[in-house]
Specification:
The protein is mainly alpha-helical and about 240 residues long. It is built from nine helices and no strands. It binds fe (ii) ion.
Amino acid sequence: MVEKLPSTGSRPSASEIGCDTSDVLVIHNTFRHLYREAPRLVRGASEDGMRTAAVATHLSTVAVMLHHHHQAEDDTIWHKLESRVPACAVHVGQMKAQHRQIAQMLDRQDDAVASWQSSPDHQATERLSEVVNAIGGALGAHLGQEEEQIFPEIERTWTQKEWDAAGAYAQKILGKALPVRTQLIYLGHVLDSQPPEMRRKFQREVLPAPLKLFWLVRGQRLYRAHRLSLYGSPT
Ligand SMILES: [Fe+2]
């Protein structure tokens, strides 16, 4: 089924314009952190031979999350931003091209994960480490450019309602791609990836109360077990 996109709508009145996009930094910090950790995880799992399956599943999950994050941006941001700020067309073109480049790198990651999982020898380990390291580099540059050149223009030309609708769309398509249990476990990675003040703000202002409760009752325990399977230690 084709997912319904948030309406691009007509141009809002001047009094409605202005929004806060800082919530997306939480997502960006998470991807930066996960890809920074990835080469070490791959090499560590290969050395002890016990965690290969867990790390392979983790990398595939992170790739699904990143793919859907970019899909949501492709579906909700570029067209509307270009129509509001035609001068952004060059930057928007660069963002689209970077998404395509990272999508190709994620395909290479999938191939490298499959080879490594079936035979985690030195060659497969080095190949996968290099692939995730390269994604981390390309992604870091891309996210930084979005933060400097794209989000300020959105804050200047979109309403809060429009930005929130784009965020809700992103959550909806990711929610369909990952089981609830996996989403709950990865909430732990989201929390662990933030500087302390951002983590407190996210827990206080963004995390809905039922999810906060679900995390405390069930998620923390699942996340500790997940970390144990990845790192050989729950902390
Ligand atoms: Fe992006």
